[in-house]
Amino acid sequence: MKECILCKSDICKVKKIKLITQETKIMKNKELIYGIHASLAAILNKNRKITKMLCTKETFLKIKEKLKDFKIPKYEIVDRKFIDNKLQNKFHQGIVIECEKLEKKQYDEILENYESDILILDSLNDSQNVGAIIRSAYLFGIELIFYNENNSFNINPTLIKSASGAYEKVSLIKVVNINKLILKLKKLGYWIIGLDSSSELSIEKIPSEIKKVLILGSESKGIRKLIKTNCDYLTKNTYAKK
């Protein structure tokens, strides 16, 4: 077999580099979601563009009624081991979808029409824990969550699965400076409540009628000192006991 002359040429190398760059950009805009609740929520989300679904026969039979009104461009029925190997885990519940990432939103635009309470996550690192927090926050009516850009968790399939569908229903927004965000929210009439295990004040004592921003600190250190000083209240978290 003759060797392709172009493979040694600079033009061919440039074309290969451009192709790799294009593929990388495409993959950066996509994410994998696994788990039945997380996958169904993504499929049912009109703001999501689903490109592919892999599903075991058993799982497909469980969810097919919910999928009948939705067209998925490409799907395959595969065995469980195939998905195990693709994801390198066994916690997928027999389904994984490939989809485009949700469009990033500007918080100024969201705040114009937002009426519910807000959650701020300060330097949390455990993606699975954050997913569970998102799920709980949504159950309490919170649909807007901020987190800091540096020293924070990654949005990944583990987080999305742990959120059990709530990830599709909340706005999760990254900010550079939480203290600046707090000052802005105060101007909009919000009261800032830091959840602090050392506080003696119960959250039930906070007036129910005020607009609230709840701040939850990192798993090991809690809320950072400067952010604490910008809180209107520091209260122990009793939600978890309910």
In spatial order, strands of the major sheet run 7-6-5-9-8-10
* Helix fraction bin: 25-40%
Number of domains: 2
The CA-CA distance between the termini, in Å, is 72 Å
SSE topology string: HEHEHEHEHEHEHEHEEHE
Give a structural overview.
It is a single chain. Helix content is 36%, strand content 20%. The protein is an alpha/beta fold. The protein has 2 domains: 10-100, Ribosomal protein L30/S12 (60s Ribosomal Protein L30, Chain: A, 2-Layer Sandwich), CATH 3.30.1330.30; 107-241, Alpha/beta knot (3-Layer(aba) Sandwich), CATH 3.40.1280.10. The protein is elongated, with a radius of gyration of 22 Å.
Structure keywords:
242 residues; alpha/beta; 60s Ribosomal Protein L30, Chain: A; Alpha/beta knot; six-stranded parallel beta sheet; four-stranded mixed beta sheet; 10 strands
Outline of this structure?
With 242 residues, the protein is an alpha/beta fold.
Topology:
Elements: H1 10-28, E1 30-34, H2 36-44, E2 50-55, H3 57-67, E3 75-77, H4 80-87, E4 95-100, H5 107-111, E5 118-121, H6 127-139, E6 144-148, H7 157-162, E7 171-175, H8 178-187, E8 190-195, E9 211-216, H9 225-229, E10 233-235
Parallel strand pairs: 2-3, 5-6, 5-9, 6-7, 8-9, 8-10
Antiparallel strand pairs: 1-4, 2-4
